[in-house]
## 1
Amino acid sequence: MAAEASTVLVDSSVFIHLLRQGIDPNTELSARAKRMDLATCGMVQVEVLRGVRNSKVGQKLLRFMSVMLYASTEFRTWDAVARLASELDRKGIILPAQDLIIATCARQLDAAVFTLDNHFHHVPGLRVMTSLDELC
């Protein structure tokens, strides 16, 4: 489902895909997202930065993420994650905890999720973007 959003939380799958293609995520995402705010959360930071082997690349990514909108995780966030997990589990939809955290953080910001991961399409009411072209 395409999403019209003024805020987009960029999932780790996008950062990882761009890095593997030899594309600088900072430059690519900044150039594409002219009319919307980019967001991140702690889970995305962990997933992206844990795999970066080059410390200069890691520092550059961290600086980029530090100027993005940030969805903090507090008790109400974890409560919402647990409720979402329970709701989906009861429907037979078992998603990784990381994706549930990211989806909840996006909801907290009223943001779409830009992802290459199909799990997010199973989250009710979550707006999902799957292409760089949707950022333009």
## 2
Amino acid sequence: MLILFLPLFLILLLFGVPVFFAMLAGPGIMLFSEGMGRDAALMYRNIFNGIDSFPLMAIPFFMLAGELMNKGGITMRLVEFSHSLIGHLRGGLAHVNILSSMLFAGLSGSAVADTSALGSMLIPAMEKNGYTRRFAAAITAASSVIGPIIPPSGIMIIYAYVMEVSVAALFAGGILPGILVGLGLMAVVAAMAKSNDFPVAGEKATWRERGKAFVDAILPLMTPVIILGGILGGLFTPTEASAVAAVYALVIGLFVLRTLKFSELPKIFTKAAMTSSVVLLLVGAAMAFKTVVSLSHVAEQLAEWIITLSDNPLLLLFLINILLFIVGMFLDAGPAIIILGPILGPIFINLGVDPIHFAIIMSVNLTVGLATPPMGLVLFVASSVSGERVETISKAILPFLAVEILVIFMITYIPGISMWIPRALGFVS
């Protein structure tokens, strides 16, 4: 009967219970009803044990670095640099939106931060330039999912912690898939630009203007270089890299660019702490949830059932991608990874799928879910920033979701996309 904690958990979600409380209440009720009080106490102790982790300290530091970069006006420098490169193309501001998301991804690793920061600047600018507000909100939401794919990525840190794989290897594996998503979105914009007669944002910038924009953006652009170079070069761990990124953002904001004021720091630290606390509480609850998954043997039962469907890993990967896509419609990427990773990961690893490859498949799929109707988180953020209804954004985003789904299946069936860089760096033999 303990296995009934899963349907009870889903019922609580359907009734609007916050994910954190549903993840604790569902298993807790079933454990107490089965007379397993000691196991229930162990489950709740694991909330703290799940949070008390050195690797997870990277999450609040990366959150802080992103907040410092955004409040320090660094986001604007990235947008201006992107505009100087491709603003002259037809549909230029839409392309700028996507390229800015790709650059911003190397600073924060958060889709929500991307949508909020870039959307507040680019959605009004695109509307003024002749785009509809719903299209501007849709492209902002669609491109923001690149944030957790291109490193640093909070979602990949969580996956690495739960599944005990290398954070550095996951970061390396996310680079090409993130670039591929960005290029795919640009291809859709280019196709739509011809049929919809999208406006040109401005005249082609001279090389001198591009050089100036690059100089203005060079310090922010060095952030991912420092983070990835330090991690992949063995200079520091991902957690230490996150602290370095936060200090770097603080120094350039306060003393180099002087776009930050000391009086703004309390608000920035508070916002970063609040955002981080939500993520860490979910991690703690998910680790407690994982305890009951182990006690109920649901992972083993699900594995046996999946194997009965087919012994062809390619077909099973297709079915799991559909499952993950549906899950992503209703559940945030972080909790979904913590709940499903320990269940699905071992199944496909035993079928011969590389752990890093499966991690990238799962991370990208659930990240795209952030922009998927009806419950995609970034849709609501884009709605809040733009003032457009979620329903209208959801219709406008469909062409972009189609190309992102295509990229997911390319990543799934062409392992080299996610495995080439990790293999080249020696993370995979």
## 3
Amino acid sequence: MKELVEVIAKALVDNPDEVNVTETEKDGGLNLELRVAQGDMGKVIGKQGRIARAIRSVVKAQSTREDKKVNLDIVD
């Protein structure tokens, strides 16, 4: 799941080297934290959060296939 988020985020940003995804197990589910460069934050979030919502939808679809609960947070 971590790799999926990294691939998507690196395709969106100008500084792919600064993309960092942290994966932690929590309450029987998986918590992912996505960190990007400050200048790329808008590209990952998108207008009115559309890109972020789309990334979360893809992650949710994959987590449903793997029968896991996954939460994605985009962190400054």
